[in-house]
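To illustrate the input format used throughout this study, we show a single complete record. The first block contains the structure-token representation of the backbone; no residue identities are included at this stage. The design step must infer an amino acid for every position from geometry alone.
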């Protein structure tokens, strides 16, 4: 999904549907796949708004990581770097769950 397209509501709905589909595939083929979720990132929306979906995926769906876009602006690179406190709501959860982010 182009994180710079749509709005927060669109990103949240799309992300939830995709993560549910990933969980279904992992359930059908548990010896082939493990769950790694996407987050509902949108331009200008704080990462704290993505934390609920990350928590749902780890706690309810059993996922082991997330796919994180370090630039939800669509190539304009005007989001804070991953080392910035801006990302702490998600990074705090990663470390407490031993969940690993992958950047795209």
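Output of the design step:
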């Amino acid at each position: 999904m182009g994180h710079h397209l749509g709005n927060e509501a669109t990103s949240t709905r799309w992300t939830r549907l995709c993560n549910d589909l990933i969980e279904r595939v992992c359930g059908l083929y548990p010896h082939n796949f493990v769950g790694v979720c996407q987050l509902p990132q949108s331009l200008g929306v704080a990462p704290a708004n993505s934390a609920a979906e990350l928590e749902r995926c780890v706690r309810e769906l059993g996922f082991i990581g997330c796919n994180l876009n370090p630039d939800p602006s669509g190539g304009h690179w005007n989001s804070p770097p991953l080392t910035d406190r801006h990302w702490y709501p998600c990074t705090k959860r990663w470390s407490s769950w031993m969940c690993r982010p992958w950047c795209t």
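Structural context for interpreting the output: Strands lie at 36-38, 65-68, 100-103. The first strand starts at residue 36 and ends at 38.
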